[in-house]
Description:
By secondary structure, the protein is of the alpha+beta class. It is built from three helices and five strands, in the order E-E-E-H-E-E-H-H. Strands 1-2-3 form a three-stranded antiparallel β-sheet, with no helix packed on it. Helix 1 packs across helix 2. It starts with a strand and ends in a 9-residue tail after the last helix.
Amino acid sequence: MIIASAEPQPYLTRFSNGKQTTNADTTPDKGGGGLGFRPHELLEAALATCMNMHLRMYASNHGIELGDVITTVSLDRNSQEEAVFNYSIELSGQLADEQRKKLLEIAETCPVHRTLDKKLSFRIL
């Protein structure tokens, strides 16, 4: 669970999971101070970090000598009908073509990707 609370500066929002705390904000052109991640950047971060961790866990559990993993995610909201997460994955290490292919497939099975791939609904508690 994430709890978000307003800070004194316009739109600056502190959020926490009870252990770690950081800030979200909007850009100065929208009245914010640019002092934290924008909300849509947090969506991008959720997917990028989940894919990154998921790939590394898979490699570790399957004895794959994986070097660095760099995941890049951007959210395209230009369409009225859908939002599109564009992503790239860079894998380093001495990987066979089959291992590289499998790792790229595994990225799409990370928990955040599976969640975002479902029909979403919202409910106030």
